[in-house]
């Protein structure tokens, strides 16, 4: 019997990335794979992939985490202020970052899963609270001008133009895939997100696992915030802003449904690559900010439509056959 390979959202987004890279090389940059281009692109892809994988945990439960920018910004402020710009203060700063991220994740998880509140409203409110805390913690003008040198050195390190941040994000995507498919706790988390009632009937404490998704996500945002702070050197109060909508789009381009269900970290990685390369090409072409937004919106709507068609191809096929009949 002939084995038929059915296209998936992962195939679609990967094909779109390949096509975009070819267009970038031949018609836009002429040097996409040069060390200069790679050293600019790969850390951006890496940070977006990290936070998008975190966002994927929340989206798998049917929610969206709008506290991401505030969490990243507060972490960046802690790394800058608590360390005092010295390597000796970095371990304490990182430990404080972990505590803050766990707290943010717990608050989100308890309010959404414990009290049954809407995830958008809760995470938006928590995000504003966290951003306010970051502003108070950092102050209007920070007396510290640079993050610790060891963090900056690691965040800007790379091999052949490939950023260490991208390599770390790929490793995270692989490990997350293994966790969700091969580890008992990960499979229970997937079950709690895809079929909460059925999971509860089998003895899985679905609300607990769904709450844990918010904590995991906040910790991953924290990692992204630390690396973003190391890359910029002097993180400001807008550190996390660029990653809110792009993280959601990367996950959805990877085939996830905002209503909840299975997510693919590797497909999310491809979605992050697509978004970052598209923005890079538009900047190289010299488009204004408004024109870039229009072009990005049009391309992303088309991409999301294609992913949706692939996901629901069976239903669409039946609907077309009924219309034809």
TrEMBL record:
Transmembrane regions: 12-33, 45-64, 93-112, 119-137, 157-180, 212-230, 242-260, 293-311
Coiled-coil ranges per UniProt: none
Keyword Membrane: yes
Keyword ATP-binding: no
Localization in the cell: Cell membrane
Membrane topology: Multi-pass membrane protein
UniProt KW keywords: Cell inner membrane, Cell membrane, Membrane, Transmembrane, Transmembrane helix, Transport
Cross-referenced PANTHER family: ABC TRANSPORTER PERMEASE PROTEIN YPHD-RELATED, ABC TRANSPORTER PERMEASE PROTEIN YPHD-RELATED-RELATED
Name of protein: ABC transporter permease
